Amino acid sequence: MSLFWIVIRQFAENEAMATSKKVITREEWEKKLNDVKIRKEDMNKLVMNFLVTEGYVDAAEKFRMESGAEPEIDLATITDRMAVKKAVQCGNVEDAIEKVNDLNPEILDTNPQLFFHLQQQRLIELIRNGKVEEALEFAQEELAPRGEENQSFLEELERTVALLAFEDVSNCPVRDLLDISQRLKTASEVNAAILTSQSHEKDPKLPSLLKMLMWAQDQLDEKAAYPRINDLSTAMLEDPPV
Amino acid sequence: MNNHSNISNSVNNTTTSTSPQDLGLHFLEMARLGLPRGLCDMDEDEDSPTELNTINSSGGFLLVTPDKLSVKYTNVNLHGHDVGVVQANKPAPVKRLVYYFEIHVKDAGAKGQIAIGFTTESFKMRRQPGWEPNSCGYHGDDGLLYRGLGKKEPFGPTYTSGDTVGAGINYASQEFFFTKNGIVVGAVEKDMKGPLFPTIAVHSQNEEVQVNFGQKSFAFDLKLFEAQERMKQQTTIEKLSLPSNVSYRIVRSYLQHYGYEDTLSAFDMACKSTVPPIYIAQENGFDEQDIMYALNQRKTLRQLIRKGEIDAALGKLSEWYPQIVQDEKSATCFLLHCQKFIELVRAGALEEAVKYGRNQLGKFYGLPGFQDLVQDSVALLAYEQPQESPVGYLLEDTQREIVADTVNAMVLSTNPNVKNLQGCLHPYLERLLRQLTACCLVRRSLNGDQGEAFQLHRVLNSIKKSKC
């Protein structure tokens, strides 16, 4: 019997420990939220930054007119950047390389890795289109010399050339190279390099802020129970578990 | 602070129970935020050390210069209880990422027994920082770090005449750190609580030290250090993953909320044509309908107000939503009339402005919450170049935007499906940013107010490295 009570007491103490976190009711929390002033201007900037960085030039232009927010970069440069990105996404890598060089020849000169990835993508496209001879020639002339300079380039080159060894590429171990995601990866690498060359951050700020919100909530969880936003896309406050 | 905040407090005290009238009042508040001083760094009001505390120092052993920024040991040290020690006049501020100060050793004197560190208020002013509990100090003669009675550890190089040495508190990592000639020597856990005073000590003949609380530039690149500390945190945060396309959804709902219809359709169009297309149709159809409510009318009203065509906007409003402009004394009507007055001033039609002001603004004079804006608006008349005047903010684009936002919210509130009027005020984006700010503030207050608050402004300006 006494053991039973000890267990019960222990249990209650544990419970108390667990709930010794500060509890903030919805009402108190809403008051705190209301005390936070967010400037409209700042939110507009955040949205503009997203549109510009993600390359939605038409939307950015319209947003400038409708909200008065000024883009942080010349909108014309977005059009050029998106043209390059689109070219890679569609597999026109040669075209993309030419466009990047028109934009700023330093971008590829100073980014050997990016240049290699573009050339690799070009090789992938040749293989995809069944141009075996052309692919081999291109690999030997353009890519192999770079592979000699850099071990990781060499490994990637070998992996890519391996595509030629399979009759049915859809079932081979390196089939991921032919996937659309490979194009998107290369495209976003070019996109980032162009943004960096324009002294612009390569990622929009909004996703970072959303991550920061998730992090901040997790951090506060350690100290307090309070209404959380669990679903970012509805921004709904959910009561703390009692 | 200023008189505006007093009034705004009295207006904006309801939180949960919101009526349509309160919506207008919310924007009245926003109109005040348009003031350049309306929203600035709330951390800046914390006092920082500026000079040495001459009242509390161990007088007799040391001499503090009249500018209170240099000390010299004037005695001959005989034992361990005749240290010349002096604290700063204020404790280190805590509501920031890092606090830091430096000393320059002008003369290491007979033995170079100089120390820099932090102590609590009750520190014994005859002892070296680090020799007593609740103190810590980096000592020049042996390069050791002392942390409380009998606790010392190898730490860094010794320092002597000509060296600049710094001590800092990193509130993010909860560490003390020290520098020598601009380079970090090391860091130790900050195991002391309560206000901590920057402290320096000299303990042999002719030792002379100058202190720099930031009046002069530091040998150490504090800005870079802070940027690196923020980056550490950012790297952890960037590893988290977000639900797919959530940013797109939030941007989209923002555009819908404020009635930026043209941007919305351009955005939707672009999302469809990207490779691969981004599908952000909402799963919850109801929500979508609510947020699309009166989108085109809201867009039209916003365009008119942004162009300064207030009469036309009023006309459309009384045609489409007479209930919004029914109450002539509502905050919405007030903001519209106020804006009309401002537009007249902008156009230089001063006589007409005076007449309009008498007819439409006079009745708001003396009403709490309205008076300051009426006063500011009327004050525009007093200046030959109102743009340059202290009330010039009224002529800025943001003021029109606030009026447009007010009308937008009022129209949203007429939606019979609206369950919570707060939703008419704040788009999802704003709710998320508020939650983020509140989480950071509450966490800091549970942590003895230590550390830096989240400020959207700082994040947005981080590329340009400018401060609010």
Automatic annotation (TrEMBL), chain A:
It comes from the Eukaryota. One of its GO terms (cellular component) is cytoplasm. This is CTLH domain-containing protein. PANTHER family: RAN BINDING PROTEIN 9-RELATED (PTHR12864). GO terms for biological process: proteasome-mediated ubiquitin-dependent protein catabolic process. Pfam families: CTLH, LisH. It comes from Cucumis sativus (Cucumber). InterPro entries: CRA_dom, CTLH/CRA, CTLH_C, LisH, Ubq-SigPath_Reg.
From TrEMBL, chain B:
Residues 1-19 have a biased composition (Low complexity). Pfam families: CTLH, SPRY. Residues 294-352 form the CTLH domain. PROSITE patterns: B302_SPRY, CTLH, LISH. Residues 30-218 form the B30.2/SPRY domain. CDD domains: SPRY_RanBP_like. Residues 1-21 are annotated as: Disordered. PANTHER family: RAN BINDING PROTEIN 9-RELATED. This is Ran-binding protein 10 isoform X1.
